[in-house]
Specification:
The structure is a homodimer. Chain A is of the alpha/beta class. Chain A folds into 2 domains: about 350 residues, Alpha-Beta Barrel (TIM Barrel), CATH 3.20.20.105; about 120 residues, no CATH class. Chain A is built from 21 helices and 20 strands. In chain A, strand 1 and strand 2 form a beta hairpin. In chain A, helix 12 packs antiparallel against helix 15. Chains A and B meet through helix 15, helix 16 and helix 17 of A and helix 15, helix 16 and helix 17 of B.
Chain lengths: ~475, ~475
């Protein structure tokens, strides 16, 4: 039985369907964390607000309900009928150092309560741990994952990937998990990286894991801030879970796809969800704390599901690069984090669809999109008949090749074709220097390939400034 | 009587209150255009959705209701009690070339129906018109504005600014209007620029007009797309009006702050307004056209008011630069349009508040913010005691001056002070080259000012690459 299928793709992100015992779970999806005993928002309400699935904690259920939960099953405990994933108590293990359950017990318990997605008791190693700790933790995680694979019944199995901030250990963890064979691969122990905005490291870890886990769904454990969804999905993540909606609400904080706002500093709600439509910030501030918390948590859920829909719509229309490149403005570390994809050009290219409808330049990171590399490569197969090739930066003039920022040489016959022919790119005076230099470099590559041809190049004086060290077969004319 | 007051400011934008005969109108605000005879959405409903004011057409009311409207008053005709602005028929004049009313008649009619903001019958000249046409149109506009100033009763008077794409004529129009003395200054005949995404020209026209109209509210006639609100407010616009919500809905198009989507291409709604919360895109597509139009128009209104609130919240917290710099990603022409502010650095600086809480770098346009220029200027008044000044790019090292992208030299004592001390800026490896070059240039400016001091400069090799042509009083050491 195939447990999931990919419906749509863009960048390294996908819309998938994961088939569970409680129906399909369409991803990207965020699974809100529900504490079965003290939910801030009732799970029934969370589903009404838009959750496609829920994650809850099997360890807490075991300790507080035991056999009663086995009798009812986790879905009836929560009162819902959507897919339920259960965590194993690893988080408690990380926080308290020890817990009163074995791996085999908690797996069996998850089977018994009818969880749709079960997780072994992996050992989370926080970032910057000693290497020896990360290694021994990982050994234990792998052992427990093997045990889980043997003890699983008919639930889907999630095999967490650990290894702290050691990239080689993360890759090893992913390889071992894949060998064992899970249905979903959560990347664990990232919360400290998220909390300290270490997004460049986050980017690297996700990409390295995605490279090993080629197609199966990846879950980003503990990531629940909507400012990260577009970024993480574009890097290949499918599932998120988080208590963020509740934790932030308890701290009087309001989530947006561009970061967090303090309720105390808000005069206007930049949202029209049922909460924000109904209340003014001042009204919320005047409520008693528990009422306010629940209402804020609801907004935080609405905006999270909204952002997931924005990401899905972007995948559908192949504008996920554009969405990410706007969302990363929410913090310079996110900008810097995204720019790490430069180092993974080949990997991103393997996943990103070749043909899209349009290419909108959104800033310097647009030049790292695979479409730009592919454009350059497509020039290699070109043939020119005459001995002289006319190049111009002026689209009004007849030429064999036009010169554009970002892409560089665009052949006459490419003018109607994606990407360069469907690209909206600012003029040379309004674009980053790197986008101009790349264009010139690409022209020179073409000139060197056709070293037996003569290139007559007519460019504006703005272009001429960047055209130093022109190859010998070039002849530069500055247009006035 | 003072007709308006400024409550808050950021960049060149403001939160104002305009006092009308029907209460205060808080700006930035969008006044939805209502056709009194065939409203797509009932004005009462529009106000419920969030409109703080309405604009309707006095010429159409005159022609279709005449005395009946005078008897009832425009507010009762529309069934609402919020501020109402009336347009004069200029739009009809532009479209049909001629209309059956004189300036003096339409002003008097607006007085009689109790409009809160009246507009004379100005003569709109479209972009790229013949200069002689623009001049003669403008002469007539000015004449009619003089007449309006005489005939106005107790309504607020809006004096449109015309002049086509001739910047000098726009300025002349603004000067004359200001001399005549209006309460609000709408910039007219811009729709063709908006429709063809000529945002650089739009930026120039707004800034040039704002420079003349120093403090009074500016209205951007015909601008109603939420993708432009942050941009236009940051340039100094206060009021918008538009039929966009209805026109786009009729064409099955869905507005977002990042551009327009076709309903036919939507699978997910990236919004949680009452419309998007209730329906799936497919359900809307299956409705009959008139029902769908009204529902889409309502979403378009909700998202427009939401975006106005996002802009107001950004002004409140002094993050309007950050908001604009994310919003301009919706189209490369908007990006290029915004980058025009480089040419108006002194003007922007006059308006932008000096102290803010933080400076988040969002891309290369962040270096055009006045905070960067002010930082450089603040260095001029610095004094150094010793003969040697220690500069370092390594924050872990003791130094008199630290080197940061964008700002360049940041004195030890500035490390806790806005802007440089409160700035989040990517590291040198992840930032645009211009941001590094500017930093180096600023350091050299400082070195030349203190030409009698010796600068010992310790930088990483990434910095060293950019530190050519170092002034004679500098001594470069590359950190390993």
């Amino acid at each position: 039985m195939q447990n999931f299928e990919i419906i749509d793709k863009d960048v390294m992100g996908r819309i998938c369907r994961i088939y569970t015992n409680h129906g399909k779970l369409e991803t990207p999806a965020i699974l809100p964390v529900v504490n079965p005993n003290i939910p801030l928002v009732d799970p029934v309400e969370i589903v009404k607000i838009g959750a496609k699935g829920i994650i809850t904690n099997a360890y807490i259920i075991l300790k507080t309900m035991g056999d009663q939960a086995v009798e009812k099953g986790v879905h009836r405990v929560l009162g819902i009928d959507v897919p339920v994933m259960t965590d194993s108590g690893s988080y408690q293990l990380m926080v308290y150092g020890d817990i009163e359950v074995s791996n085999s017990e908690i797996i069996e318990f998850q089977n018994l309560i009818g969880s749709d997605i079960i997780v072994p008791l992996d050992v989370p190693t926080p970032p910057d741990a000693e290497r020896s700790t990360a290694e021994s933790d990982l050994r234990m995680t792998i052992e427990r994952e093997r045990e889980a694979a043997k003890k699983r019944k008919n639930s889907l199995l999630a095999l967490p990937i650990q290894g702290s901030t050691y990239i080689d250990l993360r890759k090893l963890s992913a390889k071992e998990a894949k060998k064992i064979g899970g249905d979903i691969y959560p990347i664990g122990a990232l919360v400290p990286l998220l909390d300290s905005y270490r997004f460049a490291e986050l980017c690297k870890i996700i990409l390295e894991v995605r490279e090993v886990i080629k197609v199966e769904p990846i879950h980003l454990f503990g990531c629940g801030h909507p400012m990260l969804f577009a970024f993480a999905v574009a890097l290949g993540c499918d599932l998120f879970d988080s208590a963020a909606y509740a934790l932030y609400a308890k701290d009087d904080r309001y989530l947006t796809p561009f970061g967090t706002k303090k309720l105390s500093e808000m005069n206007y709600f930049p949202c029209r969800c049922p909460v924000c439509k109904k209340y003014e910030p001042q009204e919320l501030r005047e409520m008693n704390k528990s009422e306010r918390e629940e209402i804020l948590a609801k907004h935080n859920l609405f905006i999270s599901f909204q952002e997931i829909d924005a990401v899905k719509q972007a995948i559908k229309e192949n504008t996920l690069f554009e969405l990410v490149e706007s969302r990363i403005r929410s913090h310079p570390n996110l900008l810097a984090g995204w720019r790490k994809i430069r180092e993974y050009g080949d990997l991103v290219e393997k996943y990103d669809p070749k043909i899209k409808r349009k290419f909108l330049y959104c800033g310097i990171e647009s030049i790292y999109r695979p479409a730009v590399k592919r454009h350059i490569r497509s020039l290699v197969n070109v043939e020119f008949e005459g001995a002289e090739i006319l190049v111009s930066s002026d689209f009004g003039m007849y030429a064999d090749i036009y010169l554009r920022p970002v892409f560089g040489p665009v052949l006459y016959q490419m003018n109607e074709v994606y990407p360069a022919g469907h690209a909206e790119v600012p003029e040379i005076c309004e674009i980053e220097e790197e986008a101009i230099k790349l264009a010139v470099k690409n022209l020179y590559v073409l000139m060197r390939k056709f070293h037996d041809k003569k290139f007559k190049i007519y460019v504006s004086k703005e272009w001429a400034k960047y055209m130093k060290d022109i190859p010998e077969n070039g002849e530069l004319h500055v247009l006035s």
